[in-house]
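Quick illustration for those who missed Monday's session on complexes.
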Amino acid sequence: SFSTIRAVEILDSRGNPTLSVTAHLREGTVVYAGVPSGASTGTREAVELRDHDAARFGGRGVFRAVAHVNGPIADALTGRVFDTLADVDAVMIQLDGTADKSRLGANAIVGVSIAAARAFAAAHALPLWRSLVPDGVQPRLPVPHFNVLNGGRHAPNALDFQEFMIAPLGAPSMAEAVRAVAEIYSALRSSLEQRNLATGLGDEGGFAPEVAWPEEVLTLLVHAITKAGYTPGVDGVAIALDPAASEFHTHGAYEVAGQRITSADMISRYEDLVDEFPIWSIEDGLGEGDLDGWKQLTATLGDRIQIVGDDNFVTNPAIITDAIAAGVGNAALIKVNQIGTVTETLQALKICRDAGYAAMISHRSGETDDTFIADLAVASGCGQIKSGAPARGERVAKYNRLIEIADANVRLPYGLSA
Ligand code: PGA
Ligand code: ZN
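Prediction with zinc ion bound:
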């Protein structure tokens, strides 16, 4: 059981306030969690509680969420014996009492939930990932999806698509997957320099050059993959996109590189991109409110590539259940802070598994050094993770954790399951 639980306001990777949680267990163990924070958020995400006190951090302070951990949550949890993480999370969900965790704040609750997950692993003397493996699931080392070129809300350039990711699907191991992308990232930097394009980094560590056309970026990526000595495609190194289209979907149209186009135009644009480039996965290709478009996109491309819901699914078990029934997408992005507890995140993953939907574990654009998602990805067996570029400490920390898990557990399989 917990003897103390304490949160403090720290900075995330963008320099915005977030929380860390440190808890002491009776047995003497100390567990920690750092809370991530998104920029291109879905409207139905659990509520990230901010102070809205303009005198501090432009209103983004998290003193209220910190006080909720140190007051009511700590009071409810310390000194009690819990058998499972689900029991801990249930107490916090009940204490909050709202459907969207807006009273205590999802940022407060998720920090304690992640720390509690580590507490149970420590209590059972298990590595974190092993303590999270659901019954009947084969844990796997996930294919890392490295976001090497940033646009949208994550960079100040003219690029509307948010994320261009490199996915070493055909790598023989975790370490070789990371090596491949680090080499490709380096080749990409050289290509940008040769073209006199800037090599400064966006929020997730990808380059953020002044390019506007997705096609131009994809050409650069294929070139970098080849130049680094790898084979573009699903047997080698593939590409994944997260346009985060909710951010440029306004008044019923999509605004890409200064042009306003319809939902149907977007879908045929994606068809062309998939024909021309080794793209294996598209996340948030359309806006979260464009339900008919989503169904059409899934019907058009769902047999050829992975269609991932993020802003529209928000890791919410009930919403994902409805989306599956409606034929929206064939995969879900999974972010612990979108729903606010580890237990509900595991439920969302189970719903995907049971329905034959794929799942990809994800960081947020605002991160800390916490590597929880690396363990979660291995435990879930989903075979996919995205954690930004092979650069910036808060991104690399997750990939490094995966390399270390792989090294300590040589029999864990790498990659997507068949
Ligand atoms: P966010 O972006 O963390 O800023 O929401 C990540 C994503 O859209 O997947
Ligand atoms: Zn996304």
